[in-house]
Amino acid sequence: MSTFNTGQQQNVIYQADPAVIRHLHGVRDSLHQSCKPYLNHKVNVQTIDGFVHEGVIAGVDNKHLYLNVAANGQMPRGFYNPHQPYHPHPGPGPGPYPGPYPGPPYNNNVILPLVLFELLAISLI
Questions:
Q1: How many CB atoms lie under 10 A from the CB of residue 57?
Q2: Bigger pLDDT: 76 or 3?
Q3: Contact 44, 123 (CB under 8 A)
Q4: Rounded mean pLDDT of 17-32?
Q5: Domains, the chain, ordered by start
Q6: Is it the case that residue 93 has pLDDT exceeding 60?
Q7: Cα separation of 78 and 93, whole Å?
Q8: Is the N or the C terminus of the chain less surrounded, counting Cβ atoms within 10 Å?
Q9: Which residues are CB-contacts of 109 (< 8 A; sequence separation ≥ 6)?
Q10: CA separation for the pair 9, 19 (Å, rounded)
Q11: What is the pLDDT of residue 75?
């Protein structure tokens, strides 16, 4: 992100306390080290907002836990081509795709990135 200095004084809306920053770095590092040994393990993850997700730990980096979760089946997930018309009926459609893109079968597994700072509990299942 770039900034543009107009010569006017900036009003700071929020600035984190250095002690809080040090604490959050410790929490992040602890979560990262705790999760790494459990890659490819099935877990329940509860966020500080009370949401619970069940899935398999697909990865972890210094900011996110990547959870492989099954789509709930209410809505197909996937990327689509916004320039390709959608055809709700099966069969040939214009363009290079034979019907609705991405087309059945839909991938029911999705990766849910969860911010490490927002995790409350992780438990094996």
A1: 21
A2: 3
A3: yes
A4: 92
A5: 18-124 (2.30.30)
A6: no
A7: 19
A8: N
A9: 68, 69, 70, 71
A10: 26
A11: 46
